[in-house]
Amino acid sequence: MTESLTHLEINGKKATLQINRPNQLNALNKQVLEEIHNHCHFLNENKQIKVLIICGSGDKAFVAGADIKEMQDFNSPERATQFSIFGAKTFSMLENLPQITIARVQGFALGGGLELALACDFIIASEKARFGLPEVTLGLIPGFSGTQRLTRRIGASKAIEWISTADKYSAAEAHLHGLVNHVTKHDELESFTDQISDKIIKNAPHAIQVAKKVIKQGIELRFEEGCSLESSEFGLLFVGSEAKEGMKAFIEKRPANF
């Protein structure tokens, strides 16, 4: 039986998905992608989990990229294309999960590792984290939607510079560019991420899911269409049980029980 290369731990309403290949700096091979794909199927059907944290094992790397040794065996453009398509589809599944997804980056997030982090709703990084898309040093380009998600996150001109120079950026630089939401001291990364998770979990879960959906769908719409979508979803939520409890709790000056 093949040993699992990932581990999904569930603790109440929070799940943590760890990539577990520390000796390979958690590099993404086909098996890891398949396991992430399967975890996403499970999470999509599990309505009790509200937050997903993705991390890498060890202290050096979140994920240091795709597995180059495995990629060397690709003997045709079709096989390479299929690998790219499967990785992109897997990360799209992650991006569209109903849970809020957080990349907890403690070290290198390079190539496919940065693409994995970009598929999460936001990134929290240790001060020791490093980010980059170095594929052009291999004669390649990002293959798991990195050209698209990085551009949407930091803008086209910065994305072109990041990819064409293949530079590695510090957590502080990534935060300045808008890639990372928070930078913490290295030994406080886990506890800070848990604090953010706990804040999310205490709020109305269905409303959070709807807010995430409206934000992501709205990006692809004209502004007026996005506002119309927001108003429609606001109206539907207004008559729901969460809104009734939330407003009742506000009037009664007590915490809401969602």
Automatic annotation (TrEMBL):
Keyword entries, A-Z: Lyase
Recorded superkingdom: Bacteria
Source organism (scientific name): Silvanigrella paludirubra
Gene Ontology molecular function: hydro-lyase activity
Name recorded for this polypeptide: Crotonase
One Pfam family here: ECH_1
UniProt-listed InterPro entries: ClpP/crotonase-like_dom_sf, Enoyl-CoA_hyd/isom_CS, Enoyl-CoA_hydra/iso, Enoyl-CoA_hydra_C
Sequence similarity: Belongs to the enoyl-CoA hydratase/isomerase family.
GO biological process: fatty acid beta-oxidation
Gene3D superfamilies (alphabetical): 2-enoyl-CoA Hydratase, Chain A, domain 1, Lyase 2-enoyl-coa Hydratase, Chain A, domain 2
